[in-house]
């Protein structure tokens, strides 16, 4: 089957593409630059030129595919509202191209603030709807397309998809610790974050795609979660030890000043289960834990400019 992948050369996409190829699929990856195109060709994928803002390229990529994997997102948290609007427009465009075809549309979603204070499961509905909501309310929008002849599947990733080379939330926390000289957590740090290794996320995507190609999943939500909920004070302590800086509590009223935009996320209690995902897809995470990655030095070096 031919799979059109946005974000194919990104952090998660570059782990998913080899898994899709190994499963026997042909992959066409969206590329906006020569660097991305070269990475896709080196991986064995085809190149589909375009970008997240080029709706015509998204439409043609979806129309030519047997299934779509949408992983791209504008991670600009200083302009998060506009990122959400761009996400909604991209999702609407690809859903329109797939309408009436009964083809899969797998898309990246998140667990942040989904069910704060309790363990989220795959049966929890996203509370976000409408263009002004987080990620443009794209999860509710996409899942509603099941009534229009599309097979949508929400891929809810843990807030930290970790590994060597990561430039996501954990890398940002490490950078803040380097700059401030302290590995901080908010309040008593008892709030929890789920985690998953990048390699496990890549394998899970391929399993979910094969399930969706075979027929509409009874439960159109997948949780990419290997560790259900790590106390944030323990995450901070691990980073502090790896970076050689002290660990300290940051009062809640100072979290925004210390952590910037990440403060709202890092102070949230958002544990999540993947029990239904594991049972349904036979997925068993086997990659390093977050603490193993931190101890191995995955976050010890300063980030590379991007």
Structural features, described:
The protein contains twelve helices and twelve strands. Helices cover 38% and strands 20% of the residues. The protein is globular, with a radius of gyration of 19 Å. The strands form three sheets. A seven-stranded parallel β-sheet has the order 3-2-1-4-5-6-10, sandwiched between helices. Helix 1 links the parallel strand 1 and strand 2. By secondary structure, the chain is of the alpha/beta class. It folds into two domains: 188 residues, 3-Layer(aba) Sandwich (Rossmann fold), CATH 3.40.50; 88 residues, UDP-galactose 4-epimerase, domain 1 (Alpha-Beta Complex). This is SDR family oxidoreductase. Pfam families: Epimerase. It comes from Leifsonia williamsii.
Task: Spell out the blueprint of helices and strands.
Blueprint lengths: L1 E5 L6 H10 L3 E6 L2 H10 L2 E4 L5 H9 L3 E4 L9 H19 L4 E8 L27 H6 L6 E8 L2 E3 L6 H12 L2 E4 L5 E6 H17 L6 E4 L2 E5 H12 L3 E4 L4 H5 L3 H4 L8 H7 L8 H6 L11
Parallel strand pairs: 1-2, 1-4, 2-3, 4-5, 5-6, 6-10, 7-9, 8-12
Antiparallel strand pairs: 9-11
Tags for this model:
UDP-galactose 4-epimerase, domain 1; alpha/beta; three-stranded mixed β-sheet; seven-stranded parallel β-sheet; 12 strands; Rossmann fold; 306 residues
For the largest beta-sheet, the strand count, sense and barrel status come to: 7 strands, parallel
Number of helices: 12
In CATH terms, the superfamily of the largest domain is NAD(P)-binding Rossmann-like Domain
Shape descriptor reads globular
Distance N to C terminus:
33 Å
- In spatial order, strands of the major sheet run 3-2-1-4-5-6-10
CATH architecture of the largest domain: 3-Layer(aba) Sandwich
Report low-confidence residues grouped into runs of 5 or more: none
| Secondary structural class | alpha/beta
Q: Which sequence of SSEs, written as H and E, runs from N to C?
A: EHEHEHEHEHEEHEEHEEHEHHHH
């Amino acid at each position: 089957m031919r799979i059109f992948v946005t974000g194919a050369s990104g952090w998660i996409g570059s782990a998913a593409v080899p898994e899709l190829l190994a499963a026997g699929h042909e992959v066409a990856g969206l590329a906006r630059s020569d660097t991305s195109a070269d990475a896709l060709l080196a991986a064995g994928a085809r190149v589909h030129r375009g970008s997240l803002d080029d709706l015509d390229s998204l439409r043609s990529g979806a129309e030519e595919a047997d299934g779509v994997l949408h992983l791209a997102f504008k991670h600009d948290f200083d302009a998060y509202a506009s990122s959400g609007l761009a996400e909604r427009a991209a999702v609407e465009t690809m859903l329109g191209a797939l309408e009436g075809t009964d083809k899969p549309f797998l898309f990246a979603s998140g667990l942040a603030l989904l069910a704060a204070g309790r363990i989220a499961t795959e049966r929890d509905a996203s509370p976000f709807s409408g263009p002004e909501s987080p990620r443009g309310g794209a999860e509710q929008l996409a899942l509603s397309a099941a009534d229009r002849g599309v097979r949508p599947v929400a891929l809810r990733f843990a807030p930290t998809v970790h590994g060597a080379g990561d430039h996501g939330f954990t890398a940002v926390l490490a950078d803040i610790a380097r700059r401030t000289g302290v590995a901080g957590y908010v309040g008593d740090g008892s709030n929890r974050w789920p985690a998953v290794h990048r390699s496990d996320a890549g394998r899970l995507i391929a399993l979910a795609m094969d399930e969706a190609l075979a027929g509409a999943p009874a439960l159109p939500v997948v949780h990419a979660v290997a560790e259900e909920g790590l106390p944030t004070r323990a995450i901070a302590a691990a980073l502090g030890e790896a970076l050689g800086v002290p660990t300290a509590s940051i009062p809640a009223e100072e979290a925004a000043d210390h952590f910037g935009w990440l403060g709202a996320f890092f102070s949230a209690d958002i544990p999540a289960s993947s029990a239904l995902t594991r049972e349904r897809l036979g997925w068993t995470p086997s990659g390093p834990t977050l603490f193993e990655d931190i101890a191995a030095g995955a976050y010890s070096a300063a980030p590379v400019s991007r």
